[in-house]
Amino acid sequence: MLGRIQLTLMIGSAVPVPVPQSVLDSLTSVSVTTTAGTTASVFELQFQLSKDSSLQTLFMLAGGAGLPLVRVVLVATVNGTPEVLMDGVMTTHQMTPGADGTATMTVHGEDLSAVMNYIDFSGIPYPAMPVEARVLLILAKYALFGVIPLVIPSPFMDVPIPIEEIPRQQGKDLAYIRQLAEQVGYVFYISPGPAPGASVAYFGPDIKVGVPQPALNVNMDSHTNVESINFSFNNDAATLPVMFVLNTLTKVPIPIPVPDISLINPPLGLIPPIPKNIEPIEGTAKHSPIRALLYGLSSASRSRDVVTASGSLDVLRYGRVLKARQLVGVRGVGSAFDGLYYVKSVTHTIKRGEFKQSFELVRNGLVSTVPMVPN
Description:
The longest helix is centred in the last third of the chain and has 14 residues, at about 290-300. The protein is mostly beta strands. The chain has helices at about 20-25, 55-65, 130-140, 175-185, 290-300, 315-320, and strands spanning about 5-10, 15-20, 25-35, 40-50, 70-80, 80-95, 100-110, 145-150, 185-190, 200-205, 215, 230-235, 240-245, 255, 270, 275-280, 305-315, 325-330, 340-350, 355-365, 365-370. It has 2 domains: about 1-205, Thrombin, subunit H (Beta Barrel), CATH 2.40.10.10; about 215-375, no CATH class.
């Protein structure tokens, strides 16, 4: 128990269960990193064990010598509200002997997307199935792990005609789904929760709209809830993506500039950057115009995030867990950098007596587009 914070650790094979108190007592630190986009979330557990502890053998057996897959669920309860930080599997173990007869065991792991990277299913045909249907069929195999698919249909659905093309899977499930996401300008990730033992497999656009999280306050006396934060504006990072569409009559690729006009990525800054560089999008000419357009819009939204912020906070002072892949307000910095931001990544660090988070925020312009941010 960390003041008003309680940590629950669950470990098991297909179904994780709460660990014994002896395991929880040996746990010294927990780190979980979640990043927007298609990057998998990762975790690290550190245990302080004696050299004669039976837990050493138990963890090594659980790491692969006895079980093919060990699942780990981490739940942090803040002010009575549970938040699933991680639902994943162990991948590696490290042992560091100490001089006082103890040893530090470090367990690394990834979210449940790692399970999708075990078996190669190359060659499976998907006749007359759009990308979304293929993704749903692939994710159905992982219902055993509590994975619930959330697949957003493309606004320009492209159904391959069987007499012209029958798509076949190439590689393992994770790589293939990420390839499909790239084709239509989507992202794919597995998010833990909302309940322990359940996860949401999201396949859709990188949405930067929604209800903002409570504001991060700076220089506001007793209302200040961040320990540190710094901002950066790099206008040279803005680029103008150019996609190529093949003219079916002349067989000549036509260059088309792609403006950032996506409704799911509205301007969070009032003064947008002026692109100084032109960046060709490779590979769009071989796709249909619909696929090329979706991929171009996705590239345009990523190329305009020129305002970044990084910092840290204490969860007890903030009052809740800051989540990645959502909006958050910032105030107290100044007119240029106040306003709404997209939380690109969050790292949770839990030790005895503290729960802190480091974060990275991005947005596509200076000066707030809203008169005030939510509390």
